[in-house]
Design brief:
about 160 residues, mainly alpha, about 0% strand, globular
């Protein structure tokens, strides 16, 4: 899932920067809608495949990996959230908000270190997956909020509106 998100972001990032710099909000919104649709088109089926087929997928690598099913599903939920909010980190980076994104990433890293120090010794691989999932959700939630405020665009509503 991450490879697809990174690929889509790399393609649309220059378009975000160009349409934002030109002040053409309509093109900016169109580019953003397209990227969100592409991300969801790829992410939702992958998420559903992992959700319902995690054990099978892991068994392809060997029976000993089946015990990681819960961890894989937890990670998939974090990735799904990242997909649903859209490319908010890329939006901040391409529109002058890179310092916010850096700060959110560092903040979520600190939270992850604290969570990991408690969760991993108790829950093992599932604790590590939960820690990483929380990291993804936190950095994306903070970035989504800043995009909503700075760029006046709500990526969660954007896909459903006719703007």
């Amino acid at each position: 899932n991450s490879i697809f998100l990174i690929s889509i972001n790399k393609v649309v990032a220059p378009r975000f920067a160009k349409s934002y710099a030109s002040g053409n909000k309509a093109d900016f919104i169109d580019d953003l809608k397209l990227s969100i649709k592409l991300i969801l088109l790829v992410s939702v089926p992958l998420f559903l495949g992992i959700l319902f087929g995690a054990e099978f997928l892991l068994s392809l690598f060997g029976v000993q990996y089946i015990h990681g099913t819960a961890a894989l599903v937890i990670l998939a939920f974090g990735q799904l959230f990242s997909s649903v909010v859209g490319p908010v980190g890329m939006l901040l980076t391409m529109t002058g908000g890179e310092k916010y994104y850096r700060n959110y990433t560092l903040f979520s890293l600190c939270i992850s270190l604290v969570l990991g120090s408690f969760l991993i010794p108790i829950y093992g691989v599932e604790g590590a997956a939960f820690m990483f999932g929380i990291n993804l959700i936190l950095v994306n939630l903070l970035s989504w909020n800043k995009v909503r405020i700075l760029l006046e665009v709500n990526t969660l509503k954007l896909i459903w509106t006719k703007e």
